[in-house]
Q: What sequence folds into this?
């Protein structure tokens, strides 16, 4: 095992249990670790401080343990996956009405670089680090041991998430089993899940609680769901008693999937229509004033360099919504950009509201659900920001 020695003073974040070591903090490396190897970390004075997966790049080490005696092996994975399951059981996610949830949320479950989402009897595993990629078969066996009563199939989907410079050549495919059943249940509603070709692991589980909140406000309202993707907000709004729901996405494939999910739950429901159009053009051209609008765009900023343009995008988008929403309307607006802080997003929305000259009140401040836990020592894990606004 290679040993990595930090520059003087660079151990302070690790003393606060932050799970990342940046390349600029490293003084020297004893040995020649390959990407994905487990390495031990030492202070400049030679004191052990942590161990983790090594990788070439800005984040050089993702910490797996702060205890020198810990062995990163099969038993380690079983123990942590077991703890992840226990948390989901204790927050009430494993129920007959719900088989869709996130089992592992990276640093939030002390498994940095690993995401595991469950859809019915299928688990979709996604690696964001070379270390988790190299451990994928061992992780799959540990996952099946911990979840054998729930999981029959494990699909690995990491072609688009691993660092391209690592030359890992990942291939998506089943590590266990192979399912042709692509329908999962969330809060009693059915959804087609495309984990083979869909975005992320196939579904945006992180909006589950916020979709349920939309259902509470939908009764008797006309609803516009922008950037609808799979139509999650639309399906919840229909169940909540909306009089009309329009789903908009620039992707025709997304609107087709939305229509399929509406039909799966409600048959041919005349209250719903989907439009494959650009969001800004749709908002400019629309004549109908909706009572409830959902703005859930893709990440406008995936890195720090894009923050300025992203904030302009959020201001522009929300300004159009304020201009178009009816009096007494409710606006659900979100940012899933990790590079955008909660304060920056709120300021962007505040600026849009001020430009509209309308009276606006905050009803709810939203974030990701409990199966996307945030490690208190790793605030970067809180990425989803949302506001529910009452517009007079």
A:
């Amino acid at each position: 095992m290679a040993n990595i020695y930090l520059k003087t003073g660079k151990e302070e974040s690790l003393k606060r249990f932050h799970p990342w070591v940046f390349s600029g903090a490293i003084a020297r490396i004893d040995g020649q670790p390959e990407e994905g190897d487990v390495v031990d970390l030492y202070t400049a004075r030679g004191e052990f401080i942590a161990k983790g997966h090594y990788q070439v790049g800005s984040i050089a080490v993702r910490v797996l343990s702060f205890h020198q005696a810990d062995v990163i092996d099969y038993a380690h994975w079983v123990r942590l996956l077991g703890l992840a399951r226990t948390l989901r059981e204790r927050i009430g996610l494993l129920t007959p009405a719900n088989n869709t949830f996130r089992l592992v949320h990276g640093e939030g479950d002390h498994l940095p670089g690993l995401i595991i989402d469950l859809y019915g009897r299928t688990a979709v595993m996604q690696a964001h680090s070379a270390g988790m990629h190299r451990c994928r078969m061992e992780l799959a066996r540990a996952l099946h041991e911990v979840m054998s009563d729930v999981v029959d199939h494990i699909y690995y989907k990491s072609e688009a998430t691993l660092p391209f410079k690592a030359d890992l050549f990942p291939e998506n495919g089943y590590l266990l089993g192979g399912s042709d059943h692509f329908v999962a249940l969330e809060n009693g509603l059915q959804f087609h899940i495309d984990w083979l070709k869909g975005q992320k692991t196939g579904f945006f589980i992180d909006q589950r609680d916020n979709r349920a909140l939309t259902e509470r406000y939908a009764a008797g309202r006309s609803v516009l769901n922008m950037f609808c993707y799979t139509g999650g907000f639309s399906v919840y709004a229909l169940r909540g008693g909306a009089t009309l729901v329009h789903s908009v996405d620039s992707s025709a494939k997304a609107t087709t999937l939305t229509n399929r999910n509406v039909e799966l739950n409600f048959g041919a429901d005349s209250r719903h229509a989907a439009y494959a159009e650009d969001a800004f053009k749709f908002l400019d051209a629309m004549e109908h004033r909706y009572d409830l609008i959902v703005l859930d765009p893709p990440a406008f900023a995936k890195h720090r360099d894009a923050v300025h343009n992203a904030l302009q995008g959020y201001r522009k988008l929300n300004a159009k919504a304020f201009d178009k929403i009816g009096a007494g309307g409710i606006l659900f607006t979100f940012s899933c950009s990790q590079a955008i802080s909660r304060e920056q997003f709120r300021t962007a929305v505040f600026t849009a509201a001020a430009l509209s000259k309308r009276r606006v009140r905050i009803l709810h401040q939203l974030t990701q659900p409990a199966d996307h836990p945030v490690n208190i020592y790793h605030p970067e894990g809180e990425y989803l920001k949302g506001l529910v606004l009452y517009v007079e």
